[in-house]
């Protein structure tokens, strides 16, 4: 027999507010709820509750409330088999309407995390804690264990179990190898509470590596130093921007034209090949640019897509909360106190490269992103603008803002751009710093 126990996740607190409402708060967000939710919240705050008892008729609106709390990540569910804990996961139990033969998703992964065994998938942010290895048998052969039907429903709703051919018949999923999609999803910020970014996790545990690599013991060949260089400077990072005199639409237009416009399209007999101002693996040029405009003279704030074939901007979403959150995320990632005038979100249409390449396509996309970033630095520096690459992005937020399917197109880089402060102009080609 399968039973469900509901509890508040660690770090979640409940307290009454001064206006009669109830506040639920946690390290990953908060919400205020009406007085009608008090009964359920008080019981959850007191400790784990049996789901059936919590959903008794005398508890008004409990089902809807649990759904809302689960969606916000405040709850934890533990499923028991004959009184023994089988698995735990954040949220409340969901039921999947999918029927037919189910198999373990090829994107699912079971691994050890500290002293726990966990089940994860690169297609979902859910982390399932495995308490009993009997669950592994259910994952391997879902139809063989009738007693596990409620568990199978939950795992199917979370994307761990899928219809037999679902991930093979759909190009948008078939093109991804498990390790590539895992790397893509786990290297972007998300709402699942994972540590992300510059956490300095190793401080106090491991010594940082020195800047200079230890020397090899072999013979040394002395190299001459050049005099005044005659090569163009690659570029430089300028975090500060002149917000009193923001960049213009003409400047943004010139920058995009010099970096990512399509010069030529031809075919190899099967696929379209592209020429742009920067090189790209296989001449496939899967990268797209989405300017998030905060302050540009001559252009309304909003999220745009740069059509590199026609050299025009298409408005994707007018200025609003989602657009501002994209800019705010970059602001925090770059440790700035004000949003950049323009944030260029670099996305990839993964099918362009994954149709041809296997196992290394995503790595190729990241290399292409690095080449484009270097080109952006060089052009922005030559134009006297303030360029600054951003180390991370929120792919889920970008998907919500654009409405795009993240398996088809998602973020792989970000680049801030704006007018440079007074005194910071175009870099001279000859410089003593080189």
Automatic annotation (TrEMBL):
Residues 102-190 form the Cyanobactin oxidase ThcOx second domain. PANTHER family: NITROREDUCTASE MJ1384-RELATED. CDD domains: McbC_SagB-like_oxidoreductase. GO terms for molecular function: oxidoreductase activity. Transmembrane segments: none annotated. InterPro entries: Bacteriocin_Proc_Enz, Nitroreductase, Nitroreductase-like, SagB-type_dehydrogenase, ThcOx_dom2. This is Uncharacterized protein. Residues 236-418 form the Nitroreductase domain. Pfam families: Nitroreductase (PF00881), ThcOx (PF22767). It comes from Streptomyces capitiformicae. It comes from the Bacteria. Gene3D superfamilies: NADH Oxidase (3.40.109.10).
């Amino acid at each position: 027999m399968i039973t469900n126990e509901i509890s508040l996740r660690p770090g979640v607190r409940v307290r009454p507010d001064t206006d009669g409402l109830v506040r639920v708060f946690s390290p990953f967000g908060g919400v205020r709820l009406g007085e009608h939710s008090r009964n359920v919240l008080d019981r959850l705050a007191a400790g784990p509750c049996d789901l059936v008892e919590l959903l008794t008729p005398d508890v008004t609106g409990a089902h809807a409330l649990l759904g809302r709390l689960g969606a916000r990540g405040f709850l934890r569910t533990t499923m028991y088999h004959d009184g023994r804990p089988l698995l735990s996961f954040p949220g409340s139990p969901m039921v999947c309407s999918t029927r037919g033969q189910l198999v373990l998703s090829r994107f699912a992964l079971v691994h050890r995390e500290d002293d726990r065994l966990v089940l994860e998938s690169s297609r979902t942010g859910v982390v399932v804690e495995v308490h009993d290895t009997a669950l592994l048998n259910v994952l391997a052969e879902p139809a063989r264990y009738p007693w596990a039907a409620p568990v199978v429903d939950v795992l199917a709703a979370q994307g761990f179990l899928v219809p037999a051919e679902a991930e093979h018949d759909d190009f948008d999923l078939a093109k991804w190898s498990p390790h590539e999609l895992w790397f893509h999803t786990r290297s972007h910020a998300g709402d699942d509470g994972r540590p992300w970014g510059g956490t300095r996790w190793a401080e106090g545990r491991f010594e940082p590596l020195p800047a200079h690599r230890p020397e090899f013991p072999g013979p040394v060949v002395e190299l001459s130093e050049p005099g005044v260089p005659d090569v163009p400077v690659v570029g430089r990072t300028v975090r500060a921007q002149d917000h009193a005199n923001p960049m213009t639409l003409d400047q943004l237009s010139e920058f995009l034209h010099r970096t990512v416009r399509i010069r030529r399209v031809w075919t190899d007999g099967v696929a379209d090949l592209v020429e742009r101002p920067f090189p790209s693996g296989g001449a496939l040029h899967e990268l797209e640019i989405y300017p998030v405009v905060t302050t540009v003279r001559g252009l309304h704030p909003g999220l745009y897509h740069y059509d590199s074939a026609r050299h025009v901007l298409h408005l994707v979403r007018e200025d609003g909360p989602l657009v501002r959150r994209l800019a705010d995320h970059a602001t925090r990632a770059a440790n700035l106190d004000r949003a950049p005038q323009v944030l260029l979100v670099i996305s990839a249409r993964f099918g362009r490269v994954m149709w041809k390449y296997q196992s290394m396509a995503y790595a190729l996309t990241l290399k292409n992103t690095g080449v484009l970033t270097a080109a952006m630095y060089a052009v922005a520096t030559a134009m006297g603008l303030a360029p600054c690459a951003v180390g991370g992005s929120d792919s889920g937020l970008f998907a919500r803002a654009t409405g795009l399917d993240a398996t088809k197109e998602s973020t792989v880089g970000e680049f801030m751009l704006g007018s440079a402060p007074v005194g910071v102009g175009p870099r001279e080609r000859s410089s003593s710093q080189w």
